[in-house]
Amino acid sequence: MTNAPPQWTEEELAEDSSIAAAQFRSERLAVSDSWDNHYHQARGKFELLFDKLGNLDPSAITDANLADAYHLGLGEALRYLAGPPISDDDLRVIADVDSLAPGVLRKDPDALRKVFDVISRVIDPHRFPWIKANRTPNDQEREAALLASAVLLAAQRIATERRNEGKDNQETKVKDYLRGLGFVEVPPVAINTIVKGPQAMQFCAECLLGERKADVVVRLHDTRLMAIECKVSNSATNSVKRLNNDAAVKAEYWIKQFGIAQVVPSAVLAGVFKVLNLEQAQERGLSLFWSHDLEKLGTFIDSTR
């Protein structure tokens, strides 16, 4: 008979969630030069854009200058002139152009002008009041616009970085731990039957398990597949999306697709999670482990010998 993964009590879940939340707070408050780096990079882009387009003086916004701005990699800064900033996809659709690639726009002045016409219609009047007044900015207005624009772009970049780094770091930590147990990573393959995928003492990352992608798939000692989702949450509200609306949904799908005797859906968690949501996910067939205590994951894996 195969060993079932552990089911944690409310008290155990509360204790682990408290530890994870404390670690999350500590990491966010740790000294980092990431914000300074993002701010200065963003500031440099806007300063270059202002220089290229004559402080956004309409007379300086020629097709040639716009093409040069895109060629210099300032397309993102141009999008952030809008209030609120406009995404690549939205800009391409609204401007009705096939591509925003600098090389394409450089060869197509009509598309380039259509793109900037969209931006100019939604340009932020609070950061750039001189544009509507059809005048040049004074030094104070220019500095305020550069500061606000750089902060806006830097904030978005660091938020994206935190989301991506959190998940990537979590996956790396899990994979390194598995290697420490003697498992070897193999290339990902589509797994549509239980015999496919990683074999004895192997795991793969970003594998399609059925029709749902798993962050890590491990072949347990008893031949079952353990699908591990790596979830990092920055709030109790966010944890519902990460855990209950994603990982637990996958767990139910995998159990239905492969059978409870063949697959062990699980999640390795870090960050902020509400105990009630943890209990609900566990009841739906998702086994829970924590990145601050991977030894419990190792204990379960060892128990499947």
Automatic annotation (TrEMBL):
GO molecular function: DNA binding; type II site-specific deoxyribonuclease activity
Biological process terms in GO annotation: DNA restriction-modification system
Keyword terms, alphabetized: Endonuclease, Hydrolase, Nuclease
Protein name as it appears in the record: Restriction endonuclease
Organism: Methylomonas koyamae
